[in-house]
UniProtKB/TrEMBL annotation:
Keywords carried by this UniProt record: Cytoplasm
Organism of provenance: Colletotrichum noveboracense
Descriptive protein name: Hyaluronan/mRNA-binding protein domain-containing protein
Principal place of residence: cytoplasm
Gene Ontology CC annotation, any one: cytoplasm
Amino acid sequence: MSVASKNLFELLGNDAEDDTPQAPVKTVDKSTMRSTKRNAEPEAPSRAAANTSARRNNASGNEAAFRDRGAGSDRNRGKTTEESARGGSRGGYGARVRGGRGGRFPRERDDRHTKGQATGGSDKQAAQSWGATEGDAERKDEQAGEAIAQAEAKDAEAEAAAPVEPEEPEDKNISYADYLAQQAEKKLALDSGLEVRKANEGSKLKKEWANVKEVSRDEEDNFMIGTGGKTKRERERKTKQLLDIDQRYVEPERPR
């Protein structure tokens, strides 16, 4: 029995042998038109030098700071602290003018400021924000404050000008007779405030205590005895059981 296998890649036809050979492409040389004379010597390009100088001067960032001859601490010590004239260049060697990037438009144009006429609000709005032109109330308050300040200053001057009399210390020393008289007065005042109990006062029963019952307590103390007590559980004492064994040792006979 034979098995036939079919190659599906044969349908693609990607074999290099099956492709038809292509003819090589011919190159055509065209004659160019000359604008210069044949015997003339070539001139050096002038724009190339300008471009190289422009590239050197257009350095930025760290490279520009490195090439700047006026930068550095030793150069800053020799500079003056006076500001340069407005509109003049600032910085060291090759510094550009003030303004935007590249110094094309200087800062003197004032692009950030409005060029139109300043238009404010109404007079009423200005009076509310910054104060009215007619400030009669504020003026009266200021005048009253000045008058009060002047009056206080006059009072202070008058007090300072008046001589201050030194106060004499109070004499607290008293004689012995006066001391005894004061003690007697204090004793009489204390005795007059005490009320002496009258005779048979409290023997009559008041109405408040008419319905009161006397409570008496027996001197003997009665204790309640419980009917049954707790039974104590007695544990059996463990006893050791000894077993007697009659042990005998018999020596085996030795062979001859």
